[in-house]
Amino acid sequence: MKLLLNGVWHCDFQLLEGERIQTGSFRDVISADGSSRFQPEPDRYHLYVSFACPFAHRTILARQLKRLENVISMSVLSPDWGDPNGWIFGNWDNTTPDTVNGCDYLHQVYIKAKPDFTGRVTVPVLWDKKTGTIVNNESADILRMLATEFDAFGNDMLELYPKQLKAEIDQINAFVSGRINIGVYKVGFASSQADYDVAIEQLFDALDTIEARLTGKQYLVSDRLTEADIRLFVTLVRFDVAYYGALNCNLRHLTDYPNLWNYTRHIYHLPNVAQTVKFDHIKRHYYDTYEGMINRRIVPKGPLLDWDAPSLQACH
C-alpha cells in the first residue's frame, strides 16, 4: 500500500492484522456566496490531475466544458502510478511539470499542505495558490464546485447541476457511483471468487438498468448534459479499452449495449470532450499499475458467446 503516514512516504506499507489507521482528506469548498474562506477568483486555483484516472477526468471535463482553462491552471501527472513514488510529474506525452509548487511527486504537494498528513495520495487535487494549501481532493466535490461556483468567469450558459434537476441528478449519481464507477474496481480487486461473482453480477445488472433508462434518450436526466453524464461517461469511455480486460469486467463489451455505446460516443463527440480522453494514458495506467493488485486465480465470468448460433457457410 502506498500512503503517507504522519508526513512520511511509504511505497509498500503493510497493515498488521486488525490494524486501523485514521486517514485524512481535504474537504473544504469554494463558495461564490461568500460562505467559505475560499472564494472563486481567476488564477487563484490549480488542479492536479491525471488523464488516466476517471475521477480526475471528471474535473478535467468540468474545467473544459465550463471554459475555465484560463481561470484555473492545471498540472497533468504521468499515468505510471506503479512508480515507487506513486503519482509522478512528467515522463509522458501530454503531461506537465508542477508549475505551482515545483514538486517531483504528488505526495510532496500533500506534505506542503499538511506536513503530518496520513492517508492515500490521490488525484484530483484542487490547490489554492493564495493560501498555499489543498482545498479539496474529493472528485465529486471539485466537479460540483467547478460546475456551480465559477459562472462569473466561465461558461455560465452551461448548467451542469440545474436547480430543478438536483434531486434526480443526486439520485442517479448515487446509483452510478456505487454500482458502476466503483463497481468496476469491486470486480477487478475482488479477493475471492465469491466476491468477484457477486461484484460482476451487480455491475452488469447496473449497466442493464442504465441501458434501459437511455432508451430513446441522449442524456441521463432530462434532455440536457448534466453532472450525472460526466460521472458516468468517464467510466464508460474506459470500459472496453481497460476495464473489460485489465479488471476482468468481461461479461459483455460496452459495444454490446446499443444505447450505452451510442450515448458514450455522443458525449465523446461533443465540443471539447474528445481532447480530454487520452487512451494511451488509460491503457498504460490500468495494464501496468494494477497488475500486482489483481487476483489472477479468479476465473473471469465472460465473455458471453453464443456457440449455438449457426456457423457461416464456408467459402470455396
Write up what this structure looks like.
With 316 residues, the chain is an alpha+beta fold. Helix content is 36%, strand content 7%. It has helices spanning 54-65, 106-113, 139-148, 166-181, 183-188, 193-213, 227-246, 258-268, 279-289, and strands at residues 3-5, 8-10, 45-49, 73-76, 125-128, 133-136. Helix 1 (54-65) runs parallel beside helix 3 (139-148), helix 7 crosses helix 8 and helix 7 crosses helix 9. The model has no long low-confidence stretch (mean pLDDT 92).
> Count the strands?
6
Count the DSSP helices: 9
Spans of at least 5 consecutive residues whose pLDDT stays below 50 are none
Mean pLDDT over the full residue set: 92
Q: Helical residue percent?
A: 25-40%
CATH topology of the largest domain: Glutaredoxin
What's the architecture of the largest domain, going by CATH?
3-Layer(aba) Sandwich
Quick recap of the structure?
Helices cover 36% and strands 7% of the residues.
Properties at a glance:
Glutathione S-transferase Yfyf (Class Pi), Chain A, domain 2; 6 strands; globular; 2 domains; two-stranded antiparallel ribbon; alpha+beta; Glutaredoxin; 316 residues; four-stranded mixed beta sheet
Write the layout of secondary structure elements.
Layout lengths: L2 E3 L2 E3 L34 E5 L4 H12 L7 E4 L29 H8 L11 E4 L4 E4 L2 H10 L17 H16 L1 H6 L4 H21 L13 H20 L11 H11 L10 H11 L27
Parallel strand pairs: 3-4
Antiparallel strand pairs: 1-2, 3-5, 5-6
Helix pairs in contact: 1-3, 1-7, 4-6, 4-7, 7-8, 7-9
